[in-house]
Amino acid sequence: MLPAPDQRASAGGASGVDRETRTWRDVDWSSHRRTIDLAGDRLHYIDLDGSGPPLLFIHGLGGNWTVWLETLPAFAAGHRVLAIDLPGFGSSPLPREGISIGGYGDIVERFCATLDLDPVTIFGSSLGGWVAAEVAQRASGFPSGLVLVDAAGIVPTRPERWKALSLMEGAALMAPLAPRFRHSVAARRKLRAMSLRYTIDDPAALAADLVYMALPAAPDPGFRLALTACRRGWSDAWCQRLGQIRCPTLVVWGARDSLLPLRHGVQYADRIPGAQLRVIAAAGHLPMIERPAEFNRLAIAFLTDSEASPPAAAASAARAD
Question: Structure pTM?
Answer without folding.
Answer: 0.90
